[in-house]
Amino acid sequence: MQLLKNIGKTALVASLLLGHTGCTEFLAEQAPSNLTPESFYTIPDHAEAALASVYADLRFMGGGAGIFSSNWQLLEAMTGTSTTETAQNSDLNNLYGLVHDGNTVHVVNYWNGLYKIIAQANQVIAKVPPITPMPEAQKRKILGEARFLRASAYFTAVRLWGDIPLITNPQTASSEDFFPKRSPQEDIYKLIVEDLLAAEAAGLAWMDQSGRVNLAAVKSQLARVYLTMAGFPLNRGASHYKLAADKALEVITYANANPGVINLFPTYEDTRRESNKNRLEHLFMLQYNAVVASNPMDNMFPNFKPVTFNGPGGTGSTVPTLAFYNSYEPGDLRTRDQEGYFYTTYFTNGSGARFDLGAPYIFKHFNRVALGTAGVPGSRVNNLNVPQIRYAEVLLMFAEAQNEVGGPTQAAYDAFKRIRDRAQLTTPALGTYTQNSFREAVWKERWHELCYEQITWFDMVRLRKVFNERTRGFDDFVGHINLSSNQPLQAKHLLLPLGRQEMLNNPNLKPQNPGYPN
């Protein structure tokens, strides 16, 4: 909650950091309109407020992208695991149909949102070190958090667009690189790793129930980065699979020694309880509170079905394909109505008589407290956070990476089996797996465990493989048919196009990514 309280200061900071207006030493009651980046960063409270503005900017992913759509749907529509019950949003339809281009609003909004985070983090990283007096421990922590947030934004951006501008200092219209060129992906990853290693050494607590960056999140993000670097497009291979396995194991080792601090939740219902925010399995989350912003996942509600206090509402613009839902193993608890990640019935207006929805819908982000449940009306205040890193993913990262290092070891098998145990599935004995069969078993578990958390698309890109719901195997990325639209993935889809207006504003970004019109 402290993080959300600090966000009250961020409107002032945001206007300061994005423009040339500002106030000198507002504690001396000089006019707020005189605030500047140079005069603002003078006391520790300024540093905390500036950092809070970076956290606030993370919520761009929940912003609107036209009628019945949100920015986050960019990373779901292209996977083929979801479809839409509404067709009013042409940009979203283009993503489902794999015909998006540099004018698609979700693409534009993601670029703008990520580079705003980077710009704000650059301000913190540049301006906080000279603040005096300020406790060194507080300063290191703030800088570590800011570097994690910058690294994470760059990590998303480089996976979406490939070569991108590398900006590490605050910019003004007079900056030499105000119209930056694109840097090679290797340089972007170098900064990402440097930032995360700095965050790892910043003295952060293993977990932080206020929602701020913690050591478990940093180590888990490093494991993600190393795992990605091991695959496409960098192809670092064995060395980085080893780095990924070792970093994930550090989190697992701590969790095994401190199961009350980091662990899997006993039930899937626990993963979507407001009271469990920033705890146990939730290593890092986007913070939501209705006073500032409500949970942004409403587009997963069934269209015109009365599943909440609002009655027959919702947009149905991200709903699971029946093929993906049916691809789970028989008896998988994750598909059981209202117990796992889907629901096929609910209660009229959230708390009335049970009725059949007629199809499976995504229950993963459904907040019973806010929206209602059997006989209990909802509070109408949706404070549920959005998961970004779960311990379940750490276990699967370790299993995958360790298998690539030395085949299906007992430790890799145990991590994999924990995910299946919670789903109440029987796991074949370790000796029945080869390295190849264990690899695909872990990949499939990632598709089924981490679906609808904006992760699957990045798996498709780094693996160049896509889960085939009908064969239960894996196809090559290029040529795989997305059953949501019956359209094949092409090589150009491995990267997004750069926004057309951004390229007009900055000709140094040319050429456009292959396969897309300029």
TrEMBL record:
GO cellular component: cell outer membrane
Domain of life: Bacteria
Keywords assigned: Cell outer membrane, Membrane, Signal
InterPro entries: SusD-like_N, SusD_RagB_dom, TPR-like_helical_dom_sf
Subcellular location, principal: membrane
Gene3D superfamilies, per database record: 1.25.40.390
Segments forming domain SusD-like N-terminal: 71-227
Subcellular location: Cell outer membrane
Annotated RagB/SusD domain residues: 352-516
CDD domains found in the cross-reference section: SusD
The family this protein is said to belong to: Belongs to the SusD family.
Protein name as it appears in the record: RagB/SusD domain-containing protein
Lineage start: Bacteria, Pseudomonadati, Bacteroidota, Cytophagia, Cytophagales
